[in-house]
Amino acid sequence: MTALLELRDVTKRFGGLVAVNGLSFTMTSGEIVGLLGPNGSGKTTALNMISGLLQPNGGAIDLLGESVGGLPANRIAHRGVARTFQLVRALPSLTVGENVLAALAFRRHPIWGEAAKPKIEELLGSVGLAGRADQPAAGLTYIDLKRMELARALAAEPLLLLLDEWLAGLNPTELRAGIDLILSLRDRGMTILLVEHVMDAVRALCDRCIVMNTGSRIAEGPTDEVLRHPEVVRAYLGDLHA
Ligand SMILES: Nc1ncnc2c1ncn2[C@@H]1O[C@H](COP(=O)(O)OP(=O)(O)OP(=O)(O)O)[C@@H](O)[C@H]1O
Where is the ABC transporter domain (predicted)? Predict the structure, then answer.
C-alpha cells in the first residue's frame, strides 16, 4: 500500500546548525502518529518542511507517492496537507464564521458567500463551536480559539493534519475535551501527525511515535514502548535537567 506520507533522509540546515538531520519515516492513512522530542530537537522544523513553509536542504517528501518536498505551502495545502500552529493564527477583528470563511475561500475548491454558510456551520459543529459563527473571534476563550483554528485547518478537507502542540496550555478539563475532539477526527478517518509535549495526551492519542533529539530520529514504534526506550528517557531527563 502506498504510504500517505513518506520522508526519506530529509535535512534542514540553518547556517551551521543542522535542525533536522536525515529524518525518515512513513505514515499510513488513518493513523495518529506522535512526533516527540525535547525542545529544539527539530519537530516544528520537520512540520514546516512537510507543510512547505521551509524548503528542505536534502531528502525527499512524498504525499501518496508523489513528491511534494520543496513545493510552496499553498501547493502542498492544495495537495491535502493542513496544519495548526504553536501560536494560534486567528483574525481577531473578524467573527468566528468569517475566520472559517477565510480558510474556505483559499482552499483548492473555494467556496464563499451564502454557499459557504452550511459548510461553516458543519465545520464549527465538528469542533464543538456549533452556533458560534457570529461571535467575534476576539472574545473566544483559549480552547475555543484552538477549536476555531482546527475548523480553519479542516476547511481544506485535508488528507493529513499536522497539529503543532495543539493541546498545549489547556487545563485538565479542556485537555480531556481536546483529546476527545482529536479522537473524533480520527474516527472520521483523518490522518494526524501530532507534535506534543503533553505525555498523557500522547498516550491517549498516538498509535505510534517517532522521537527526535538534536535533529535526528532516536526511536520509533508503539507509544508505550517508545516512551520507555532508554535513549528517549535520557533525552527527556537531560532536557528537564538542562
Ligand atoms: N528559522 C530558524 N532560523 C535559525 N534556527 C532555527 C530556525 N528555526 C528553528 N531553528 C533552530 O532549529 C532547531 C530546531 O528547532 P525546532 O523549533 O524545529 O525544534 P522543536 O523540536 O520544534 O522545539 P520546541 O519543542 O521547543 O518547539 C533549534 O535549535 C532552533 O533554534
Answer: 5-239
State in Å: Cα 19 to ligand 1 middle. Answer: 6
**pLDDT one-digit tens code per residue, 132-167:** 999 999 999 999 999 999 999 999 999 999 999 999
> What distance in Å separates the CA atoms of residue 66 and residue 113, rounded to the nearest whole number?
34
Q: Where are the domains of the chain?
A: 1-80+158-242, 90-157
Q: In a mutational test of the pocket of ligand 1, which residue from 10, 14, 199, 236 has the highest number of ligand atoms less than 8 Å from its CB?
A: 14
Q: Whose CA is nearest to atom 7 of ligand 1?
A: 14
The span from the CA of 218 to the CA of 235, in Å, is 9
Average pLDDT over residues 170-174: 93
| 1-80+158-242 is classed CATH 3.90.400.10 | no
Q: Calculate helix-pair angle for 142-154, 172-187, nearest 10 degrees.
A: 10
Separation of alpha carbons 164 and 204, rounded Å: 17
For residue 169, report the distance from its CA to the centre of ligand 1, in Å: 20
Pocket of ligand 1 (CB under 6 A): 14, 17, 19, 37, 39-45
Q: Whose CA is nearest to atom 1 of ligand 1?
A: 14
pLDDT digits (tens, 9 = 90+) for 55-77: 999 999 999 999 999 899 999 99
- Supply the residue whose CA is at minimum distance from atom 9 of ligand 1: 45
State pTM to two decimals: 0.93
pLDDT of the residue at 87: 73
